[in-house]
Specification:
InterPro entries: GH, Glyco_hydro_5, MAN-like. Its main location: secreted. It is found in: Secreted. Its EC number is 3.2.1.78. It is a single chain. This protein has about 425 residues and is α/β, with parallel strands linked by helices. The protein is about 40% helix and about 15% strand. The strands form 3 sheets. The chain has an 8-stranded parallel sheet. Helix 1 packs parallel to helix 3. The longest helix is centred in the C-terminal third of the chain and has 23 residues.
């Protein structure tokens, strides 16, 4: 999912928002020489590890961090959002490390970059490091927002080297694969102008995501997408020896998997050219990714039926992580639309709690469910960056408490060992 509107905001509203965050969460000043020590996240079988201890993720999506940091008048919101997440005990934020062509493009054309935008990404990473939040960085979009694979295909076509005008040629065209590889090596070897650390050596980055929600409908067998995943995951690992890698899947089962009939939302889900098991089993993929949007995947189910689907969907993928993949499973996007006809704000709390409860149960049983990331959080006054899933978490007390409770429940499983006692202090206070 992604929202794509990029309008400017009233200066007064922006100032009010920053004052509110300052009053609510404390000093926003940054000293990059005093940032927390963040070790790399590794994995051992079905679990993430930090300092040789099992580590679980409670986090969120704010896809807009780099784009918002380009201009000085928007930039303080990036640190404010990351600080607010840290104050809730959240450990990972998923965000875009791409913007291909168009407004505020990081990659203007193949191999050509806007240093001003790259410095905005530097800033987002440095701010995350300062606040003790790790970033899951996505490298390209399957969707058209922020360029995506459509832009790569246009570039190849404009340069007269494209094999096809189909968006799916992103996955099989040799010239486009070269474009993407050049982009990958440029990003991974980028030296942060604020911290002085190359991205590939920065433990602030939790993991790389190859592509957001990949689909290759021109080849429903899945062979084309699988070949691309094999090649690109190996390429990332050849450059970066430290970071974890995931695909960015929605989690649908492919045409050869029997679960397509009993777990997939509908028949269309098995014809998208992706397969959760096959794609995630790739040697250089460290953990599996899954999304949860039942109200978009079904059009004839009520809220209660969607909750039942959520449980079945999650438990199936956690079982796959344990029995088939032997890798962690992260639910890297989940959200409930406020445009549903029967929507009530209380439904979001129930939807979130259903997902978070399953993660906690998995953690208590040492299963593969490694964490979940809400889509999406944003700040008051920036609704133009939101969508029908967006939440300002502190605006609803019950939601805010639910988020903190999840952070504390996961921390208690490991005896409050996460992040050197930061959560111990948070969870010892009465909310």
């Amino acid at each position: 999912m992604v929202a794509g509107n990029r309008l400017l905001y009233p200066i007064l509203g922006f100032a009010s928002c920053i004052v509110f965050i300052y009053m609510s969460f404390g000093d926003l000043r940054v000293n990059y020489h005093e940032e927390p020590d963040l070790p790399f996240v590794t994995r051992n079988g079905t679990q993430f590890m930090v300092n040789n201890k099992v580590w679980y993720v409670n986090g969120w999506n704010s896809y807009w961090l780099m784009d918002h940091a380009v201009h000085d008048y928007n930039r303080p919101r990036v640190g404010a959002m990351l600080q607010a997440g840290a104050k809730m005990g959240l450990t990972v934020c998923r965000t875009w490390a791409f913007n291909d062509g168009g407004y505020n493009a990081l990659q203007i054309s193949p191999g050509q970059y806007d240093e001003r935008v790259f410095k905005a990404l530097d800033y987002a990473i440095a701010e995350a490091r300062q606040h003790g939040v790790r970033l899951l960085l996505s490298l390209v979009n399957n969707l058209q927002a922020y360029g995506g694979k459509t832009q790569y295909v246009k570039w190849a076509w404009q340069e007269g080297v494209g094999l096809s005008s189909s968006n799916d040629s992103f996955f099989f065209d040799p010239s486009i694969r070269k474009y993407f590889k050049n982009y990958v090596v440029t990003v991974l070897t980028r030296k942060n102008t604020i911290t002085g650390i190359e991205y590939r050596n920065d433990p602030t980055i939790f993991a790389w995501e190859l592509i957001n929600e990949p689909r290759c409908t021109s080849d429903p067998s899945g062979d084309t997408l699988q070949d691309w995943i094999d090649e690109m995951s190996a390429y990332v690992k050849s450059i970066d020896k430290y970071h974890l890698v995931t695909v960015g899947l929605e989690g649908f089962y492919g045409p050869k998997n029997s679960k397509r009939l009993t777990v997939n939302p509908e028949a269309w889900a098995s014809a998208l050219g992706s397969d959760f098991i096959r794609n995630s089993r790739t040697e250089n993929i460290d953990f599996a990714s899954v999304h949860i949007y039942p109200d978009h995947w079904f059009h004839d189910r009520d809220f209660e039926d969607n909750l039942k689907f959520v449980s079945k969907w999650m438990l199936s993928h956690i079982e796959d992580g344990d029995m088939e993949l032997r890798k962690p499973v992260m639910f890297t996007e989940f959200g409930l639309s406020n445009l549903n006809e029967d929507f009530e704000p209380s439904q979001r709390d129930r939807f979130y709690k259903t997902i978070l409860d399953i993660i906690v149960k998995s953690a208590k049983r040492n299963k593969s469910g490694a964490g979940a990331l809400v889509w999406q959080y944003f700040m008051g006054g920036m609704e133009e960056y939101s969508d029908d899933f967006g939440v300002v978490p502190w605006e609803r007390t019950s939601t805010y408490k639910l988020i903190i409770e999840e952070s504390c429940r996961l921390a208690r499983i490991n005896g409050m060992t996460q992040e050197k006692g930061k959560l111990k202090q948070l969870c010892s206070r009465k909310q």
